[in-house]
């Protein structure tokens, strides 16, 4: 708690600024979201992978852990839905809300404030794996699209291209001239506060209603997921810092863009 409280308070403070801004200013949330998705977040990913100190082995373990935790959660949610005889749409909704944590808008700043720059590097690796699941695999399973179409959607994600750009710069040992590396770093650092402000603006128009579905989803997302992450992380022998990041990211609430992406078609 002594570590998390100094991380939670600044995050809550910036989110509250977003709430106030959403109520008092005529900001265009869609414009801010596009700025975050297409410019700031990709810059953060590219900069992190370009300057990262994490080894390929550790990054691979983190990604493997993300997929294992998601698979275990999928099996548990599917089994629970079968036992409780949920209809298909409810089962799919529960799978979507349980498998996809908000490890971007909320997870990255919490890790950054609590575990610093090295923790943030690992949190971004987690977010990349989670994005592959969210945009590349989940639509094929939940929305009935083909894996080919899901792969095309994945390739349209700016995060994927930012990942490839950052890895290419690092592997080829390219030094960006004219302080362009610093410019990339500045853009990336802007991603976290902007994302939190957008999250605060989202809360202005969010209605809160708790039913049995929300309670079940909450327990899967906030209780079971981090416990599974702890077990999986220990089994695949994640180093202490990687394990801390892995558990924190797995304990985030449901991503705000989960349901619309799967059930609009």
Secondary-structure blueprint of this entry?
Elements: H1 5-24, H2 29-51, H3 56-83, H4 88-99, H5 107-142, H6 147-156, H7 158-171, H8 180-204, H9 212-235, H10 240-250, H11 258-263
Helix pairs in contact: 1-5, 1-8, 2-5, 2-7, 2-8, 3-4, 3-5, 3-9, 4-9, 5-6, 5-10, 9-10
Short summary:
The protein has about 260 residues and is mostly helical. The protein has helices spanning about 5-25, 30-50, 55-85, 90-100, 105-140, 145-155, 160-170, 180-205, 210-235, 240-250, 260-265.
Can you describe this structure?
The protein is 79% helix and 0% strand. It is mainly alpha-helical and 265 residues long. It has a single domain, classed as Na+/H+ antiporter like fold, CATH 1.20.1530.
Number of domain units:
1
Number of helices: 11
The CATH architecture comes to: Up-down Bundle
Mean pLDDT: 86
The CATH class turns out to be: Mainly Alpha
Number of β-strand runs: 0
> What is the first-to-last residue Cα distance?
43 Å
Q: What oligomerization state is this entry in? A: single chain
Low-pLDDT segments, ≥5 res: 259-265
Strand content: under 5%
CATH fold label? Na+/H+ antiporter like fold
Shape: globular
Backbone structural class: mainly alpha
| SSE topology string | HHHHHHHHHHH
The value of Rg in angstroms is 18 Å
> How is the main sheet built?
none
Helix content: over 70%
